[in-house]
Design brief:
Elements (H helix, E strand, L loop, with lengths): L1 E5 L3 H17 L5 E5 L2 H5 L9 E5 L7 H11 L4 E6 L5 H6 L4 E4 L4 H16 L4 E6 L2 E6 L5 E5 L2 E5 L4 E5 L2 H4 L9 E5 L2 E4 L3 E5 L2 E4 L4 E3 L5 H16 L6
């Protein structure tokens, strides 16, 4: 899950990030948080970055949160938005843009916690995730955040764009968690890759979009490449992909 925080006031941005990190830690949520103090920097990422939730300050130096929200929705219609502002006057406009919530500055942690709880309840209706025991805690990982999973020293290693989550269990116990999702492909024993993160394949390797290389089983290379080609064909032609 990726959350963006946009606020041109450095003190407000620091406080917001502290609150969000605190909430995610208390609720055991695996998340990548990106902070922006200039709206242009955020807008420059819209074509390449996927956001699940965005906190938007309404009053920005060269634009306003309402205009940024409209642009965000064009790129990412399913992204949820929480506005924050020192003024009440934009509340009606915010909700017309289907904002999830509207925080009036200065807001408390309890108010932000309530907004994030509402977001969690909304996401649960549509998002798919798995739960893994990481150390002493249970961590929830969105299916869409998983790049690939491998196995090392009795630990499942779930690789996401921001970190590696390690859980002590057998791969045979873990793999059924991903079996309902067609985007996951066995590329060799004890390794499953999310085909949405594959950029191309070269020789005996899949090359991921972040540049990492994953070995393709030589004995099953033909079947594996065919399965990947079928997946891409269905995707390009508008097939149903879970």
């Amino acid at each position: 899950m990726t959350i963006a925080l946009i606020d041109d006031c450095s003190q407000d941005l620091i406080l917001l990030s502290e609150y969000v990190y605190r909430y995610c830690k208390e609720h055991k949520i695996h998340v990548s948080i990106k902070q922006f103090s200039h709206e242009k920097d955020f807008e420059g990422t819209l074509g390449t970055e996927h956001y699940d939730l965005v906190f938007l300050d309404i009053f920005m130096p060269n634009s306003n949160g309402m205009l940024i929200a409209k642009k965000l929705k064009r790129y990412n219609p399913k992204c949820q938005i929480i506005f924050s502002t020192s003024s009440k006057e934009h509340a009606v406009k915010a909700f017309r843009l289907h904002a999830l919530d509207y925080l009036l500055k200065p807001y408390t942690y309890a108010q932000l916690e309530d907004a994030l709880s509402r977001f969690e309840n909304t996401v649960k209706k549509f998002a798919h995730y798995i739960e893994l025991k990481e150390g002493y805690y249970i961590t929830r990982v969105l299916i869409t955040d998983i790049m690939y999973v491998d196995y090392h020293n009795h630990y499942i290693q779930v690789h996401t764009p921001s970190k590696v989550i390690r859980s002590y269990m057998f791969f045979s116990s873990f793999s059924p968690m991903l079996s309902p999702y067609r985007q996951f492909l066995w590329c060799y024993r004890n390794c499953m890759v999310n085909m949405d993160y594959i950029d191309t394949w070269e020789g005996n390797d899949f090359i991921l979009k972040n540049g990492e290389r994953l070995l393709i089983s030589k004995s099953q290379k033909k079947e594996i490449i065919q399965a990947y080609a079928n997946y891409i064909f269905d995707y390009v032609n508008g097939g149903t992909i879970s």
